[in-house]
Specification:
Elements: H1 12-17, E1 24-28, E2 31-35, H2 40-60, E3 63-66, E4 70-74, E5 77-79, E6 83-86, E7 98-100, E8 105-109, H3 115-128, E9 133-138, E10 143-148, E11 158-160, E12 165-167, E13 175-177, H4 178-182
Parallel strand pairs: 4-7, 8-9
Antiparallel strand pairs: 1-2, 3-6, 4-5, 6-8, 9-10, 10-11, 12-13
Amino acid sequence: MATEPKTTGLTYEDLVAFPEDNFRRELIDGELIVTAAPATRHQRVVLELGSRLLAYSKVHGGEAFVAPLDVFFSDTNVVEPDVLFVTKDRMAIVEDRFVRSAPDIVIEVSSPSTRRLELRRKRDLYERFGVAEYLYVDLDADRVEVYRLTDGRYPVPSILESGNTLTTSLLPGFAVAIAELLGSSDESG
């Protein structure tokens, strides 16, 4: 009789033992979180943000990454944000296999199956481990929620909608029009 795989009490060693099968596997407090590949609109937004951050890094330094890439907070807390950025002053946290410690900016783009995970568990994890800015791109509401760490906590987020522009004090000169980022909500996927 086959047994179900263990899903709690896991470590990074357990995580890397899983097969590469197009599922995103993450650990939050030792609990395995598995999600399927996202839809096309999600990927368009990830690509737009990743390319904008890549262009920024080529001029100003730092490094942008898109999933899949592990962020190793601890042996039992390893996640794959959709997009992340490490500023040039903190490049020492970028290792061959993963980013060790809190990136400066983490971006999650909503998917129906991950909304609760990203707005609660991952936001709390990013806050706990000191991610300076967490951006949640809500494709259902066509907006971006910007959480900026203040005194170790994320206060109520700034909400950016179609007429707004995304900027951050962490990346002077970086700006993306929200309408341009989100594209049309009636695009397939």
